[in-house]
Amino acid sequence: MVQTYTLRIKNGTRHVKQYRIWLWWKKYTCIKRANGRVYYEKKECSRREKNHMQRFSRRKGLTFEAVPTQYTRSNSYRSQFFACHPSATGKYRCAYCGKKKPKDKITIDHIFPVHCMEKYPAVRKRAALFGIHGSNDMKNLCTACMRCNQKKEAKMGIWILKGFLGKQPWYWPLRRILTVILVFFVLYLGRKIYMPVVCNWINTLQK
Ligand SMILES: [Zn+2]
């Protein structure tokens, strides 16, 4: 497979908007950021185009960024996920909290966040250990309720483990069984250890 890149041209010493007509002509999309600034992006570019735009940006005093396309967010990962994981009941379980939600209330989360995969080669290497070679890889996607998705944001650490475990169909029933066993065990211990202590205490009070 030929490697393609997502190219981003941002403000540098000069403002990227000065070149908007030229970038529009080259089929770049203008993307507005939350802080009101804009940058221009084009997906699926060849290595030749990448090198050309890199030289152009350096010459014009703009900031240039190239990310292998497979690590950037695709437009179709949500529909692809639902096509691969159809649900008979129409509900999906959040991998992070275990709650079941209807399809329109569930989001598809990238377990290794797209932002980290784009920015840090070390994260890509770590993801490759799990057999993940792209942000939109099915192995890197899980269902999440809106609340958990907002809480997770671009966090890693324990959230990665939670995501991988929570998306396994056996995880939540097993967790429930283990919780019941644990509760019974604690009750049994309580009866065995604390009951004689409590009885002794009551006896001493009665005397
Ligand atoms: Zn949740």
From TrEMBL:
Gene3D superfamilies, sorted: 1.10.30.50
Where does the HNH domain start and stop, copy by copy? 94-154
Top-rank lineage group of the source organism: Bacteria
Q: Which UniProt keywords apply?
A: Endonuclease, Hydrolase, Membrane, Nuclease, Transmembrane, Transmembrane helix
| Transmembrane regions listed in the UniProt entry | 170-190
Q: Which GO terms label this protein's molecular function in UniProt?
A: endonuclease activity; nucleic acid binding; zinc ion binding
Looking up InterPro entries in the UniProt record yields: HNH (IPR002711), HNH_nuc (IPR003615)
Instruction: Supply the name of the protein.
Output: HNH endonuclease
Identify the species of origin.
Roseburia faecis
